[in-house]
Amino acid sequence: MGKKKTVASDENIALDVEKQEEFNKNLEELNDEEIDYGTIYVGHLPRGFYEDEMKAYFSQFGTVSKVRLARSKKTGGYKGYGYVQFTNSDVAKIAADAMNNYLMFDRLLKCQYVAEEDLHPAIWKGYNKKFVWADRTKKHKKLYNRTRTEDQLKKTADKLIKKDNTRRKKLLELGINYEFGGYEGAMKKKKVAKTPKTKTAKSKISKKTPKKELSEAAL
Questions:
Q1: Which of 24-28, 151-155, 165-169, 207-211 has the lowest mean pLDDT?
Q2: How far is it, in rounded angstroms, from Cα 119 to Cα 122?
């Protein structure tokens, strides 16, 4: 069972100095009152049923103190199960019994009460952090379109040429004599400067030239 106590300290000061002793006594009585936390495991969660939805839904049984949804550290995608903590263990047991094998969005929920001593010590680590989906497409697009240095371009070219040579070797082993330019040939073509075609200048007679001048030029 989880226990939460209010610890008496120098910071707990009564508003009336004369009633400080009575205040400390009441505080000690409050410390004796234990909060009986209860946690349930919820599996086979449907998509879209995340932290906020889980807390709102399970609040119908009682006060929900914490919700933790298992997510992938690499992608952030949910793994389909999570944990819900109530401020009362009896309420947690009732919720687990009521929601076990409950049909929700074509999924049969699997709920089970978990004793506090059986929980992992870091089960609630970062439970209150709002999960933000990362734009992975934008990230990879930026990485792919980044400006590369000459060394990086040379390294990439060497890899592609090596792959082409491996293909040629495999073809020869199969008895296939086939030559192809590959990446190296494409790079050579790119480097060769294309000579521009020179256009021969042709004398054009202006349409605006008078007919009289044309006849004189013919003579």
A1: 207-211
A2: 8
Would you kindly state where each structural domain of the chain is located, as residue ranges?
32-118, 150-189
What CA–CA distance (Å, rounded) separates 3 from 5? Answer: 7
Owner of token pair 């605006």: 208
The fold of the 32-118 domain, in CATH, is: Alpha-Beta Plaits (3.30.70)
Whole-model pTM: value is: 0.49
Check: CB of residue 67 under 8 Å from CB of residue 82: yes
Rg (CA), the chain: 39
| Angle in degrees, 0-180, between the axes of helices 150-173 and 182-191, rounded to the nearest 10 | 130
The four Cα atoms 41, 97, 38, 116 give a dihedral, to 10 degrees, of -60
Q: Cα-flanking dihedrals φ and ψ of residue 128, to 5°?
A: -90, 5
